[in-house]
Structure formats: C-alpha cells, structure tokens
Amino acid sequence: MAISRAQLLKELLPGLNALFGMEYKRYGEEHKEVYETESSERSFEEETKLSGFSAAPVKNEGNAIAYDNAQEAWTARYQHETIALGFSLTEEAIEDNLYDSLSARYTKALARAMAYTKQVKAANVLNNAFASTGYNGGDGVSLCNTAHPLVSGGTNSNTFTVQSDLNETSLEAATIQIAGWTDERGLLIAARPRKLVVPPALMFVAKRLLDTELRVGTTDNDINALKAMGTVAEGFTINHFLTDTNGWFLITDVPNGLKHFIRAPLQNSMDGDFDTGNVRYKARERYSFGWSDPLGIWGSSGS
Q1: Per-residue pLDDT tens for 129-146?
Q2: Would the pTM of this model clear 0.90, i.e. be above it?
Q3: Cβ contacts of residue 134 below 8 Å, gap of 6+?
C-alpha cells in the first residue's frame, strides 16, 4: 500500500516546526565482532570438517608400520535468506511537494530497518545456542552443547554441565575447559578464548573481570590472574541484541567457527508505476549466519 496524503496530513500544513521519530542513533554492525564474513556465489554454502590421524603408535622391531585412515566428520550448511523491504509514495503526495522530504526521510528509515534485521538475524544464532531442537549444527547437536560427537567416539563440550553466571570462577573454568578440547581423533588442540561477548546487563561485570588489577569482589590482595595472563586477549564486546541477560560467550581462536556469508550485498532501487503514478522504493540483500566448527565459541546461559 502506498503512503498517501491522508497519512501525512500534518506535513502538508504550514508552520510545522519538526518531525521526529526516525532520527534515533542505532547500534553499529555488532555481528562483525562475532562472525567471520565471506562472500558467496551460490544459493547455499557447505563446509566439511575433516578428521586427521590418531596418535602415532610404537613400531616394534620387525613389525609392519601402522596405517591410519582420514575421513570426513560432518558437513555444515548455510542456506541464504533474502531480506527485503520497501515503500511507495502516491502520485498526489509527490505533486504536493512531499517527494524530496519524504524520500530522504523514509529511505533512511528503510536503511535502519534493514540494519536492525541483520543484527537480529546474527544474534539469533547465539540466542538459540542452547536450544534442544530446531537449531542443530552439522554435528547434529546445538551450538553450545556438552556432547559434540567426535570420530574417535569421544565428545567435546563447549558449555557447562550446570550453567553458571559470569564471574571470576566461571570464566576461569571455561578457559580450562577450552584448553582440554581435542580434535576428531582425540589429539589435544591448543585452543584459547579470544573475546568475551556479553549482553548490556553484563557489561560492567565484564569490565571489572578483565580490566581490574586485583581480584574482583574479595578482600585478598591477589592479582587478577585473568588480566595478568591476558586470558581473553581481545577483551570483551557488548551485543545489544542478545535476549538472555545472563548469557555470555567466549569467541575462541579455533578457525572456521561462526560465519556470515554474503550472497548479495545491500542494494537500493526505485521505480515509477505507470498506472498509478506512484514511486516505489525497495532495499534488498541476501545472506546467511551460522557456524561450521562449534569449537569457535564457548557459551553459558547463566544460572
């Protein structure tokens, strides 16, 4: 439906001092703090995790060398979505000198809506990281799970068995758990946390934990080991689109974790309709958010 003069009566009146409601500041591209971004030229993308070899056995004198098999572990799939929104102005609204002011104002509103949608889509992966059904990854379980299956028959865990709020003890425990991760054949990998991701409700907690020289919330004169050891090398970032005020995440240095594929970047276009004389505007982009290796992140939903 086109925006008509009936919806914009006040803007036709002389002496109107100000229009407001669409000039709010907006949060930036917070997904870039969490996701690796790549371009895509297909309708979907797939990434396959490979299994290496197990630890080398001792070769006894005179015996044959042992041979191992490499194999594919599982495949992650990214299905791109098309996000589009538009508006149109009636011919009469354009005639009554509303074209210049409205087109500029509402194209800004259109850009705001598209940017907001992208951040919601990106945060949706984290907001459903602990979902028991409907949001499983290539290995068949949720993003943050205590039992990511391995080819060797073992499992990796990238969350607590009993969820815990963000504090010194839980952050240290998460770091220790990350250090114990193995590859598909059970060999230890040198994984470390890289960045802490928190909702606004935890930003002050995160600041105190990572930047205070001494231990937080104690009367002991001990150093803050988290800061002294540079445990979370890139500090913390706030994601305003996380819905759980107690949830927190650690982005690790494991490659090919959370990914954002761009199939078609944001494009704006307009045209005139011959029959009605209306002018139509639209914005469109196509992308996907997801994860390949779940070890790219560690998370807790809080207690």
Answers
A1: 999 888 999 999 999 999
A2: no
A3: 128
